[in-house]
Amino acid sequence: MRVNGWNLTGGYTGSGAARSSSTDAAAGVRDGAGPGSGSALSVSQAVDMAAGALDAIPQITVLGEVTGFRGPNARSGHCYFQIKDDSSAMECIIWKGAYAKRAFELRDGMQVQFTGQFNLYKPIGKMSFVARSFTLAGEGLLRQQVAALAEKLRREGLMDESRKRRIPAFCSRVAVVTSLSGAVIDDVKRTLRRRNPLVELICVGSKVQGEGAPAELIDGLRRAAAIEPAPDCILLVRGGGSFEDLMTFNDESLARAVASCPVPVVTGIGHEPDNSICDMVGDRRCSTPTAAAESVAPSMGELADVLETRSHRLCRALDSIVLAGNAAVDGAAQRADRAMRANLSRLRMALDAAASRPCLTRPDAVLEQRAAELGMTQDRLAAAGVAAQRRMEGRLDALAARLASSTSGMAPRRHELALAGSRLCHAGAAAVDRAGSELSAAAGKLDALSPLKVLSRGYSIAYADDVVATSAGAFAPGDTMRVRMADGSVYGTVTQVSPTSNRTEN
User: Which CATH superfamily, name and number, covers 2-137?
Assistant: First the structure.
């Protein structure tokens, strides 16, 4: 890609004729030709010669401070600025494609190493350094690392305001973690004594700069948090210094220790412009150690003002409550009075209405009315009774007539019934006589067959164990036996059993 005779990589890409002109012009200069010899160069030839000289310079790396940074351009996306040192400055360009590959944003004041080539914009003869890549240098690299760590902790949520704890408005017990040999600790003590001598200060010594300082500060935070009784907050403070001096407070382990400390941490590191990682993750950031001490120890005058203000507010609130209560009581009294008057009016009207009733004004009139009503009821009952009696007499007369008419044809039926009854009596008597004769005959036969009849003729019945014995074999010598006779029973013991033969003895 070419832009007005420039190669975007920094090399010149003019035509062969232009390149020859440049060569010829350079040869003329070497031969001693100049303005006085009649062989002066044109502006284009001079610019071409300068461009050729710049093309001969190889790719170089330049260290300088960025100033006047403009970019990326809204239309082209290119960046234009200057890089300088203590005595010189030069124009610098970074094309859109090269800047898109950046690892950080350029801004004024940054120390940066640029790698590229010189190039010349021929229409105006302006020389620029075209940077193909750039990296941070010195303090800038450190700032880049700090920014990367800050972004990492921010993504983890250690800098969220919702995570940070509230510092008590009136701290009575404060621990401070700092160097015990510097002026910072004296400033903190002096500030606390001046503002509120009732605040108890506990000092925990630790290195704040140099090798091993982060580990000592972490241990100091641990020891301060373990104090019994626990302090209301911990001051992590340090005086001002360079960016490198304050790098201790950009340590990741120390930042995580501040975020995880069980006691709220107030930071006062360096001066107002200084902002470390510990400031970002702490529960409260103050610009200086003195400001940190002032933030946790309100002055006695401020406390007195607060107490007075709150006393006034309390008095006003009490007055408002009393006034509101009085108004409420007055309103309730008025409502109660109105309600009582209305209730008394209703009762008075009810009493007047009751007093005007006839039962109270003329009791005898009520009795006379009830007596009259009772007499009328009695007359109605008497008339109803007479009418009902007459209706019943009429019904009875009608029934008597119907009964007489219905029984008029019963005489023949009564004669037939009498004849049938006579025949039935004769037939029944004959049947009873026949049955009595048959019963007498059967009784005679039964009496003749009765065992009692046989016993009366001199016979007896032998029993073995209450069972009638029909054979002599039912007994054995020594058995008990019972003999039934007509007039009683005889008990005995068998002494001998003599069976008889089957022939009949005469």
Answer: Nucleic acid-binding proteins (2.40.50.140)
User: In the structure, how many helices (H) and strands (E) does the chain have?
Assistant: 14, 16
User: Would you kindly state where each structural domain of the chain is located, as residue ranges?
Assistant: 2-137, 171-302, 455-493
pLDDT tens, residue by residue, 381-397: 999 988 998 899 888 88
Q: What are phi and psi of 357, to 5 degrees?
A: -70, 145
412 pLDDT band (50/70/90 cuts)? confident
Task: Say whether pTM exceeds 0.85.
Answer: no
Separation between Cα atoms, residue 25 and residue 425, nearest integer Å: 187
Report how far apart, in Å, the C-alpha atoms of 174 and of each of 225, 253, 275, 292 are.
10, 23, 23, 11
Q: What is the CA radius of gyration of the chain?
A: 72
Q: How far apart are CA 476 and CA 494, in angstroms?
A: 7
Strands (E), 223-357: 233-238, 265-269, 284-286
Q: What is the Cα–Cα distance from 297 to 169, expressed in whole angstroms?
A: 8
Decide: helix, strand or coil at residue 67. strand
Tokens coding 457: 């003729």
Q: 209 by DSSP, 3-state: which?
A: coil
* Dihedrals phi, psi of 134, to nearest 5 degrees: -155, 150
Least confident of 19-33, 162-176, 259-273, 334-348: 19-33
**What are the tens digits of pLDDT across the range 93-147?**
999 999 998 877 888 878 888 999 999 999 998 999 999 999 877 656 667 778 8
Question: What is the CATH topology of the domain spanning 171-302?
Answer: Rossmann fold (3.40.50)
Give the pLDDT score at 262. 94
Read off the DSSP letter of residue 458: T
Contact between residue 30 and residue 47 where contact means Cβ atoms under 8 Å apart:
no
Q: Give which of 86, 137, 141, 133 is closest to 112, Cα–Cα.
A: 137
